[in-house]
Structure formats: C-alpha cells, structure tokens
Design brief:
alpha/beta; 2 domains; secreted; Enolase_C; pyruvate; magnesium; Enolase-like_N
Length: 424
C-alpha cells in the first residue's frame, strides 16, 4: 500500500526568481507529498550536475528538460517501488543515471523525486519526516548557524568574505537560540544605520545585511559590537562563524580581497583568518581555501586547532572527496548540501561517514532556496547537530526555522549543543 503510483513534476521558482524543479509523489494508499529543490550561487566544481535548458527563457535558467525527465524516465523507473524501504527509490535513481554527478538526467530532477518519495513514505506512516528518518527516541534539534552580514556572491561583493554568522553557543533551547540570533541581527542593522550605512535596510540573498563595510575586519567588528548591543556575551553566549568561500576569491595567482585592494597567498590567507580567530570570538570557519588545495587545507586545519574548520566546496557532499579529506586531515567538519549530492541516500551517507570519523556535520540550505521546509526535518532526522540556512529574514529562510520551532513545540525533542563542552 506504500508503493509509488504517480510522479508529477513542474517548474517552480526559487528565491532568486530562477526556475527550479518541483515534484509530487503519490502512493497507492492515497498518501502524497511534494518537494521543491534549491540551487546555489557559490557552487563548487564537484557538485551534482544541475540541468538547465539554456534557451531564451529565464536567461537560459529554465528547467523544463529536467521536469520532462521526472515526468517520463524517472517516473517510469520508480513507479511500483515500495517507499516503506527507505533507500529503494534512491538506489534506482542512482543506477538509472549511471553517473555519480547525474549529468544525464540532472541532479535537480533526481533530487526532487528522492525527497518527495521520502516525504510521501513518512506521510503514509503518519509521522513527520524527521521522525521517519530518526526512528524511536527524542528528536535532536540542531544548533542554528545564522547569517548576519553577507558579502561575496550573496551580496554583490559588498565585502569579500561571503558570510559572517553567529552561533548561539550558550542557548538552552532552540527557541532561545533563534531569539538570540534575531536580537543580534537587529542590533547589527541598527548599528550599521547609525554608522551611516543606509544599505542596512536591504537584505542579501540569504537575508543577511549586504552592507559595503570596506573590509572584512570591519564586518567582524560590527558583528562583535552587535552581540554586545543585543545584551549577549561574545564567545560565551553567542560566538562567531565565518564562511570565507575562498573559491570565489581565487584568481589563479592568489586570493583577491578586492574591497581591501590586496591579493594573498594561501599561507597569507591562513594567517589572516588566524588573526580573525585570535581577536574575535570565532569558533567556526568554512571554505578557508580553494577546493583543490588539499595540502593548504591540511595546513590550515593544523593552524586553526580548536576551531571548527568546515569543508563545503572542498567536499561537495561527495563521499570520495570526504574520504580524501579525512585521510589528509584537511578540515574537521563537513557541510552537507543535499543538492550537491543528488539523493537523500547519498547525502546521508556522507554525513554518517563524517560522523564516524569524529567530524562535525552541518546540514545547509542554498542561496537560491524555496519556501519548502524539508531540510529542517533532515537535520533533525539525521542528527546533524548543526544547521545553516541563512538569516532570520526572508520567508524561504524562516520556513526552515519555523519548522524547527514547530518540532520543538509538538514533538519529544532535545536541543543538540555541540559547543556546550567545547573550548571557546
């Protein structure tokens, strides 16, 4: 009674008004569920292939071909499969394309079916997706990592570094954690306006403040002052995270900090980041160097001992790249973006492999996202420990936060705080 009966896809819009793939999977018991997939702006070379039409519609960004693949090839392949077996659909999807990057059918097409099928199975079981994925026991709510100040590809390069975020390390519940982050963001906006930055009333792709501050150190100073202005203690109650997105800074000859008119070598960029860590309450840094500099990443991880060093573009939620990182000691945490991989099964495998290695895991949204909230359930059901979906502005961001607040209010949950015992 939980077999796939119908699969229907259509073209929807993400938060940047770009088309994305939406899909509904219906089961023989009458249960059904939909899924809309996200899309990134700051993308790595090793991500699953995103199939776009390349014609005149939406400047070539249409996804009608991907939708057609769902409605024909993928629908035919999964019809009749029993979704009560969690990986049955994903295995068929992976085998059907034949390539781990889904270059034939499109990772965006495959992921839409993968997510919708799992949600439909949870609906048939009469439980939230988080419960269906997690199984018995209290649901572990993740620590939020919330964007406050944006730069890079998310804010027209107002500053060089892509994201300056906060982690409410001293919070006792998810609701308190989110409230603290909202207070810091509001304080940052007020301080920026008082400093003459009228652009602080605008928002970047992920809801952060897209303020042209001139330098990355200035952004850290503003963020630290905002934590204090919010009535919170930097480092003890609210700590700082940085997403350097170094791929976006790499010119082939060095890392260009255009706003500061400087170009740095890998060693110099590591020194720069170490200085930020030394002078601010920074506990996490992401994408410190470009995606193929394995030796540099290992050196950065050693230099930043005691700090969470997250690989995003470096790993692209790919199991072989993660294994190489673990072998080399390049990073100590992985960002899990499901659309980088293409299926829930594949992304979950990367997350679990990282955890077996003793690494931290962060489930992440993309800069082009939708109002769909399934990512929140994944972070809980997979016991990721941390989640990063953007700021507390823009509804496609708040949809995930609101889903986590709902789970905290309606289910048996425990708030995961990987920072509680960690040195800060």
């Amino acid at each position: 009674m939980t077999r796939v009966e119908q699969v229907v896809a259509w073209e929807a819009l993400d938060s940047r008004a770009r088309p994305t793939v939406a899909c509904r999977v219906s089961l023989t018991d009458g249960s059904s569920a939909r899924a809309l997939v996200p899309s990134g702006a700051s993308t790595g070379s090793y991500e699953a292939f995103e199939l776009r039409d390349g014609d005149e519609r939406y400047d070539g960004m249409g996804v009608r071909r991907a939708v057609e693949h769902v409605n024909t090839t993928l629908a035919d392949a999964v019809r009749g499969l029993d979704t009560a077996e969690p990986d049955a659909v994903d295995r068929v999807l992976e085998e059907l394309d034949g390539g781990h990057r889904f270059e034939r059918l499109g990772g965006n097409a495959v992921l839409a079916v993968s997510v919708a099928a799992s949600r439909a199975a949870a609906a048939a079981a009469g439980v939230p997706l988080a419960c269906w994925l997690h199984g018995p026991g209290a649901l572990p709510l993740p620590m939020p990592m919330v964007n406050i100040i944006s730069g890079g590809a998310h804010a027209g390069r107002a500053i060089d570094v892509q994201d300056f975020l906060v982690i409410p390390v001293g919070a006792a519940s998810f609701a308190q954690a989110l409230e603290w982050c909202a207070r810091v963001r509001d304080a940052a906006r007020r301080l920026a306006l008082a400093g003459g930055h009228a652009a602080a009333v605008l928002v970047a792709d992920e809801g952060g403040l897209g303020v042209p501050l001139g330098g990355n150190g200035d952004a850290l100073d503003l963020l630290t002052r905002a934590i204090d202005a919010a009535g919170l203690t930097p480092g003890t109650e609210v700590a700082v995270a940085i997403d350097v997105a170094a791929n976006q800074l790499w010119t082939g000859a060095g890392y260009e900090l255009a706003a500061e008119d400087r170009t740095l070598s890998a060693a110099e960029l590591i020194d720069e980041i170490a200085g930020w860590v030394a002078h601010h309450a920074v506990v996490s840094v992401e994408d410190v160097l470009r995606e193929d500099d394995w030796a540099g990443w290992a050196a950065a991880t050693r230099r930043l001992a005691g700090v969470q060093v997250i690989g995003d573009d470096l790993f692209a939620t790919d199991p072989s790249r993660l294994a190489e990182g673990v072998r080399r000691g390049a990073a100590n945490a992985v960002l899990v973006k499901v659309n980088q991989n293409g299926t829930l099964r594949g992304a979950r495998g990367v997350l679990q492999a990282a955890q077996r290695a003793g690494w931290a895991t962060v489930v992440s949204a993309r800069s082009g996202d939708t109002e769909d909230d399934w990512l929140a359930d994944l972070a809980v059901g997979w016991n990721a420990g941390q989640i990063k979906v953007g700021s507390v502005h823009r509804s496609e961001r708040c949809a995930k936060w609101n889903r986590l607040l709902e789970l905290e209010a309606t289910e048996d949950t425990v708030f995961s705080n990987p920072w509680r015992e960690a040195p800060r």
